[in-house]
Every structure is written in structure tokens, then in C-alpha cells.
Specification:
This protein is of the alpha/beta class and 395 residues long. Helix content is 38%, strand content 14%. It has a 6-stranded mixed sheet, with helices on one face. A 3-stranded antiparallel sheet has the order 7-8-9, covered by helices on one side.
Length: 395
């Protein structure tokens, strides 16, 4: 049974009338281009794939695969989603996704990446466990300019134009070359059920511990959400308010206010992301590069460089790194450091990986191992020490 016959039978069964209308080509550009996928699909050169893997680390999934396409670099990804498997419509969070999409889909993909983009793009892409790596021809369309603004991690490649003679990229040829742009965007992780439960429990416990019992229950909720709105976005405030209203009455004498919904909406409207890093400005890549040049100067400079690189690579708040103890650090057989960080806002714990490799002429994993042996004795000892006259104090 053909597609048209199935459509007609379904319409007849539901008593529907079908009318055919012609849409002018200039009003139907994107569907018209997408209907010619044979010319829209193109392969990423092997050299570009190798450079991406070396620069940002290998991805896990190819979201623009097709059954007859074999990636030029063996082992580049462990999983592939074809167009028939709706690779561009799946949930990309919590994994490293690679894509080389048709030009007609750049606007759609840019909007999707914006919806799951992590607010803080700090740290090294090599350590990101959730990211989108996209390769696309470089051109000056509004969609491309919007896409480029999503990340500062970009790379450009000039490749021979003859390998794209039969694709839609042929019109971009200049001096027998086509310029490709690659970029990586850090995306939000898909939280596990356990992480969600722990975060919700942390919000409820914080309200019950910090509330002023002399105030009515609605004022207690309003005060808590107003404080949180200074360092949280609207979506986060809505989640916190929802779980507090659901769980707090079950485990305490706090009663659900009649105006709870209005209180949550009001706090959400006042929410701001300006204090997302706890009121401090996040560490930038340029600052890390500048400060790492001084790590050989003295133990004091060594400690400063170590602190700043850990903040940069984990995208953690300064207070969270400052509160680390010897017992919060573990090392695997490859020399990578695993940090157990206690979040200051949700009061939940998380683990961050510090890869055993050079970052701006400094290896933070190896430096951390040396510093722990020098500056700490017991598991409960603070990681950071006062340095006087180039001597580390253990008191």
C-alpha cells in the first residue's frame, strides 16, 4: 500500500476532506530544500574530525548519520542516529553529540541548542560530559550569526571544494576551497531520578532550617524564594517552590499557603541569573592563561594557580572549591583526580573529574596530588593553607 493510499484511507475513516494547495517556492524554501536531502547531506573530512577529537575530545553520538555513511575516523563515535531515527529531534542532554547538519536546519538546531545550553560555558571542553559539537559551512546568514554567539570555542578549516561538487555546499566555493566552522557548546545534563530527589530534599530542608517561625507560612515561603531569586533563574525558582509545597507539609508543621501559586509566580518574575556563580564573577580562560605563567614562582603562586584552574575546570563556585578537604579528593589509576564537591545552594553533593593532562602549561591533576602530599595530613584537613615566607603552614 502506497503512502498516498494510506493517507486517503485514513482521511476517509475519520470523515476528513483533503484539499491540495500550491505554495509558491519563495514561500516554501525550507520544506523545499529539505525534500532534496540527497544534495543536503555531506561528510566531514577526516582531518577535521581528528582535529576536533584532539582539541575538544571525542563525541559519543553522531546525530546526523545515515545508513550508507561511514565516518572517516574509526571509533570517532560509539553510536549513530540516522535521519529516519530522528537524531536531530532526540534529547541531546547528558551526552556528547556530534552533528554536521544541512544548512536548512541551522536555525532550528540553533534554537534547540539555546534551550539546553548551560548558562556557564567555563571549563575545558575536554572535561564536559554533556556537549554538542557541530560542524557547518561558514557563511554570513542570520541563523549562522546566532549560532556562533552560543560559544567561544570555535575552529575554522579550509577544505578542497571538489569533494562537495554534488552537494549544496558547492555555491560556497571560494578559490577552490570551502570554509568549515566547528564549535562546541556545553549543554545541561539530564538529571537522574536520584539527583532530582536529593536536590528537592535539599531545598525543603533549607526552608525548614532557615525559616522564621514567628511569621505566617506564606511569608516564610515568600522570604525563602525571594532570597533564592537573587541567584537563581525563573525555572529554578518554579521547581523549588513546587517541591517545597509538595514535600514540606508532609515532614513538618509547615502548612501549604492558599496563595502559594501566586507567591511562586511573583518570585519567578523577580528571579535573576546575575548571581549564578554565588555573587562572584566566573573565572575566564584568559585569566587562567595569565595566572598559570606564575605557578613556578613560589608556593603561594602555586596554590593560587591550582585554585583558579580547579574553579575553571569544574565550573564550581569559589566557596565550593575553598571548602574542599583531603578526604574529598581521590585519584584513579590514570592519574585523574575526582573531586567530591558539596553544592552551596542545593546542599547536595556532586563529583567532578580533573583530567590528568596539561591545561595552559599546568597539569592541575598532578599538581593537586603533589599539593595534598605537602599541605595535608588527615582526611578532614582543609586543602588550602596559609603561606608565609614561602613556607606552607600546616596549622
Amino acid at each position: 500500500m502506497g503512502t498516498l493510499e494510506r493517507i486517503l484511507l485514513r482521511a476517509d475513516a475519520k470523515n476528513l476532506t483533503l484539499r491540495c494547495l500550491h505554495i509558491a517556492g519563495h514561500l516554501n524554501v525550507q520544506p523545499d530544500r529539505l525534500s532534496r536531502f540527497a544534495r543536503l547531506e555531506w561528510a566531514t573530512p577526516r582531518g577535521v574530525l581528528e582535529n576536533i577529537a584532539k582539541r575538544w575530545g571525542p563525541p559519543q553520538v553522531d546525530a546526523t548519520a545515515r545508513p550508507d555513511k561511514t565516518l572517516a575516523l574509526p571509533g570517532f563515535v560509539s553510536q549513530a542516529w540516522t535521519r529516519e531515527e530522528h537524531g536531530l529531534s532526540r534529547d541531546w542532554r547528558g551526552m556528547r553529540v556530534f552533528m554536521a547538519p544541512p544548512l536548512a536546519l541551522i536555525g532550528q538546531i540553533s534554537r534547540r541548542i539555546q534551550s539546553i545550553r548551560e548558562q556557564t560555558q567555563s571549563g575545558s571542553p575536554l572535561t564536559w560530559t554533556s556537549a554538542v559539537i557541530i560542524v557547518t559551512p561558514d557563511h554570513s546568514s542570520p541563523e549562522m550569526r546566532t549560532l556562533k554567539r552560543l560559544s567561544r570555542h570555535k575552529a575554522y578549516y579550509s577544505v578542497p571544494a571538489n569533494q562537495y561538487a554534488d552537494s549544496e555546499l558547492s555555491w560556497l566555493e571560494k578559490n577552490d576551497k570551502i570554509r568549515l566552522m566547528a564549535m562546541v557548546v556545553r549543554t545541561t545534563s539530564r538529571p537522574s531520578d536520584e539527583d532530582s530527589r536529593r536536590a528537592a530534599a535539599g531545598w525543603v530542608c533549607k526552608l525548614l532550617r532557615e525559616r522564621d517561625r514567628t511569621l505566617p507560612d506564606n511569608e516564610q515561603l515568600k522570604q525563602y524564594l525571594s532570597r533564592e531569586a537573587g541567584t537563581c533563574g525563573p525555572a529554578s525558582i518554579t521547581r523549588k517552590g513546587y517541591w517545597i509545597c509538595e514535600a514540606a507539609p508532609l515532614i513538618s508543621d509547615w502548612k501549604l499557603p492558599l496563595a502559594a501559586r501566586q507567591i511562586i509566580i511573583g518570585a519567578s518574575n523577580r528571579a535573576s541569573l546575575q548571581g549564578l556563580t554565588g555573587g562572584a564573577r566566573p573565572v575566564t580562560s584568559a585569566e587562567v592563561q595569565r595566572v598559570t605563567k606564575t605557578w613556578r614562582t613560589s608556593p603561594r603562586h602555586f596554590q593560587v594557580v591550582l585554585f583558579s584552574t580547579l574553579c575553571f575546570m569544574t565550573a564550581a563556585r569559589g566557596a565550593e572549591i575553598f571548602n574542599l578537604t583531603k578526604g574529598d579528593i581521590q585519584f584513579d589509576p590514570e592519574g585523574n583526580a575526582v573531586l567530591r564537591i558539596n553544592r552551596t545552594k542545593t546542599e547536595t553533593g556532586t563529583r567532578k573529574l580533573i583530567v590528568n593532562r596539561m591545561v595552559c602549561d599546568f597539569n592541575p591533576a598532578r599538581a593537586l596530588k603533589l599539593w595534598i602530599a605537602t599541605a595535608t595530613r588527615r582526611d578532614g584537613d582543609s586543602l588550602w593553607r596559609r603561606v608565609r615566607k614561602d613556607k606552607v603552614s600546616l596549622m
